[in-house]
């Protein structure tokens, strides 16, 4: 009875160790590529007029600072489009204050309305991209929780000038506001995913920071592909893959994002990432599930088996199972050291919390592995997920079957209507289509609708 069990364990352990070695080599390549990228100069002046699209919902950590950073980029020819679901969104108040600071770039605040057949973020992006004119050569997408540096925009669009680059993407580096267990776990899991990105394969678009020329965006029919779906970036990645368009990962444009989650909030965030991956990047999700499962068996099974075998007198087998478990931990620690070295390049301002996150990432492999495995496994059950107060149910082929919205009490108690702080517009109601309030640093404004015949 013991011999078949040992054969099964050591077979699984061999697979786990091979996978771990491959991941370690991958992490080394990512570190080499990222460090080399930071030694290169980037000039994005040849990318023409750029439209930066920022979907917003609610007031997040450092929202005002994040949005302000987008208005002071070291790039001459660009405009910023903030997109919200409704004029009651609390983010409108923050945007109003930024407009009052008279930025040097043109700013549009677009009220997209509530989504009916796709994710709210996708609906916001579809509305914003559908209203761009021909003067916009390049589209840039960025999340409102990203905190880009002043040179982020120029460095992000610069690679588009190369003939073999059709889109550019980066990623996020999470910065804990407090060194709590939830925040440290999330930062470590996010850093692990970050380390999987390198230069020798097709990069997956990350919706929080990516850019594409408008003609390629239109030619790939990304807006049409978005309809009925929940994930904007993974659907866009699918379209780029099918059209054999090259996506470049740009380490110099990795953005920081502050996090401060409590237990269930952290879990909901983690499960949503895994849930979206299950439906829109199924093969990658399955591979992650297999790799984490065999790692769990090898690590925890190796420790338990080593104890049992040692008590039973099988010292050689006990030492071998213990060595397999320790080898996984050692290689994971090496990967963590390498990716944290790169993390110092991504984050220019170091904090005590970041240092604690580094130590945790290097030392806490057993806990991080277990939580990550449970998160991936949880996505196998159920078809529903909550995202920013909206419930989504996924049907066949990743199409949305049901949307339900839960009103946020804080927003209902103190709504901030655009009319509270804007000059009174010339229309009172829009029956159909999104409304747009367009502003510039000189406080010029105008109102438009998708169909002027619907203006009352």
Characterise the protein shown here.
The protein has 456 residues and is an alpha/beta fold. The protein has a domain at 42-180 and 196-261 and 414-454: Spore Coat Polysaccharide Biosynthesis Protein SpsA, Chain A (Alpha-Beta Complex). Helix content is 48%, strand content 15%. The protein contains 15 helices and 14 strands. The strands form 3 sheets. It has a 9-stranded mixed β-sheet with strand order 8-5-7-4-1-2-3-13-14, sandwiched between helices. It has a 3-stranded antiparallel β-sheet with strand order 10-11-12. A two-stranded parallel ribbon has the order 6-9. Helix 2 links the parallel strand 1 and strand 2. It is globular and about 75 Å long.
Summarize the structure.
This protein is of the alpha/beta class and 456 residues long. It has 15 helices and 14 strands. It has a domain at 42-180 and 196-261 and 414-454: Spore Coat Polysaccharide Biosynthesis Protein SpsA, Chain A.
Q: How much helix is in the residues? A: 40-55%
CATH first level of one domain: Alpha Beta
> Rough shape?
globular
CATH superfamily of one domain: Spore Coat Polysaccharide Biosynthesis Protein SpsA, Chain A
- In N-to-C order, the SSE pattern is HEHEHEHEHEEHEHHHEEHHHHHEEEHEE
Report the radius of gyration as a whole number of Å.
Answer: 24 Å
- Chain-averaged pLDDT: 84
CATH fold-type name of one domain:
Spore Coat Polysaccharide Biosynthesis Protein SpsA, Chain A
CATH architecture term of one domain: Alpha-Beta Complex
* Largest sheet data: 9 strands, mixed
Task: Enumerate the strands of the largest sheet in spatial order, edge to edge or round the barrel.
Answer: 8-5-7-4-1-2-3-13-14
Strand content: 15-25%
């Amino acid at each position: 009875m013991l011999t078949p069990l040992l054969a099964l364990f050591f077979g699984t352990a061999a697979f786990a160790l091979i996978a771990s070695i491959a991941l370690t080599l991958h992490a080394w390549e990512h570190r080499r590529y990222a460090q080399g990228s930071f030694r290169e100069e980037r000039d994005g002046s040849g990318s023409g007029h750029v439209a930066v699209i920022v979907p917003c919902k609610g007031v997040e950590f450092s929202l005002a600072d994040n949005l302000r950073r987008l208005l002071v980029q070291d790039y001459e020819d660009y405009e910023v489009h903030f997109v919200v679901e409704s004029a009651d969104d609390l983010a409108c108040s923050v945007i109003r204050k930024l407009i009052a600071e008279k930025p040097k770039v043109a700013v549009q605040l677009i009220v997209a309305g509530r989504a009916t057949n796709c994710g709210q973020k996708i609906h916001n992006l579809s509305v914003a991209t559908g209203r761009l004119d021909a003067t916009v050569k390049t589209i840039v997408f960025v999340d409102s929780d990203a905190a880009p540096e002043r040179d982020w925009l120029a460095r992000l669009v610069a690679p588009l000038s190369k003939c073999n680059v059709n889109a550019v993407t980066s990623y996020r580096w999470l910065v804990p506001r407090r060194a709590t267990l939830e925040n440290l776990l999330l930062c470590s899991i996010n850093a692990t995913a970050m380390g999987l990105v390198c230069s020798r394969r097709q990069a997956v678009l990350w919706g929080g920071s990516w850019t594409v020329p408008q003609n390629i965006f239109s030619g790939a029919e990304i807006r049409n592909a978005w309809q009925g779906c929940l994930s904007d970036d993974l659907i866009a990645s699918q379209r780029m893959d099918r059209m054999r368009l090259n996506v470049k990962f740009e380490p110099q444009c990795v953005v920081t994002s502050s996090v401060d989650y409590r237990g269930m909030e952290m879990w909901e965030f983690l499960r949503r990432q895994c849930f979206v991956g299950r439906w829109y990047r199924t093969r990658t999700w399955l591979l992650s599930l297999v790799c984490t499962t065999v790692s769990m068996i090898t690590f925890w099974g190796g420790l338990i088996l080593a104890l049992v075998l040692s008590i039973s007198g099988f010292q050689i087998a006990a030492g071998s199972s213990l060595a397999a478990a320790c080898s996984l931990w050692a290689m994971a620690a090496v990967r963590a050291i390498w990716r944290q070295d790169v993390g110092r390049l991504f984050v220019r301002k170091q904090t005590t919390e970041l240092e604690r996150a580094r130590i945790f990432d290097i030392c806490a492999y057993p806990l991080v592995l277990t939580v990550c495995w449970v998160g991936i496994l949880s996505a196998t059950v159920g078809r529903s997920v909550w995202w920013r107060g909206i419930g989504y149910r996924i049907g066949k082929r990743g199409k949305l079957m049901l949307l339900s919205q839960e009103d946020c009490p804080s927003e209902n108690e103190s709504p901030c209507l655009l009319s509270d702080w804007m000059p009174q517009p010339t229309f009172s109601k829009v029956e159909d289509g999104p409304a747009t309030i367009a502003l510039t640093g000189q406080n010029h404004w105008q109102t438009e609708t998708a169909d002027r015949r619907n203006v009352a």
